[in-house]
Amino acid sequence: MRVLLTGASSFTGFWFATVLAKMGHEVVATFTRAARADYGDSLRGERVALVRRLVTPVFGCRFGDTSFLSAILRTRPDVLCHHGADATNYKSADFDYQTALARNTYRIGDVLQALESVDCRRIVLTGTVFEAGEGAGSDGLPSFSPYGLSKCLTAATFSYFCQQAKMSLGKFVIANPFGPWEEPRFTAYLVRCWSSAEVPTVRTPEYVRDNVHVSLLAATYEAFVAQLPAHPGFMKISPSGYVETQREFAERFAREIGSRLGWKATLEFAQQTDFSEPLIRVNADRVDSDSLKWNETKAWDDLADYYSRSALAVG
Fold it and tell me: Which of 163, 207, 241, 260 could in theory staple to 304 by disulfide, Cβ–Cβ 3.0 to 4.6 A?
């Protein structure tokens, strides 16, 4: 298949592009910055440098702009995978959800018209479990944040316009991926502490979350994209990983990584007092890893190897 993919410089986008290409799909990946050099030596820049070897890159290209419409007409994709989204300061309560919505859906009518002109009738949109109504859990499944709200509104916009255009829309809902080439978040914090013989503190051990290996997530994404039918309609998958408290996940991570790297992976757990987020929020679709030929032990081995080589592991 010819796949036009946005958002390939992100952690999950990098993995999606990589697995799509390795499974034999012809991937055209758009990047918003004008050139590879504009990403610098950051972790994002490293991802771009790696993934551009596997895809046809189109730099200086944003969803809906003239260069994006030209890319559709030039590459004639079989499916548009819109993974990219405005996520600047996504954890902030001041996140500008209106601007994010406008960027995520810019000139969507023109985009669908261009796709129709090259006989492409399949779109895969990435969603998040942090959107209102997604996943399973507590507190009535609200949007977690203004970022979650922007993603919810983006999905509603795509649903409306794809239905009007009689296109096939697939929604791929992400929970909490972790793995190699991730920005330094929770798991990287644990590794940094252990590599320095420090004891990390888990501050929200009571939250029940859904942490999933990014390699399993990417394999599921490729299968979903490949199986999406061309006839009008809607499909959704919300792949799940380790559904457990953050205490339990931290303990799991400590066992798996500590044993592989020979570290004394000790943990401390704070008494959680902040419950500003829903207590439970997880995805609901169990993944058949055997059918995807995905191996859990190898995923942990690969992650330990990545951290052993990464600057994250030494501070």
Answer: 260
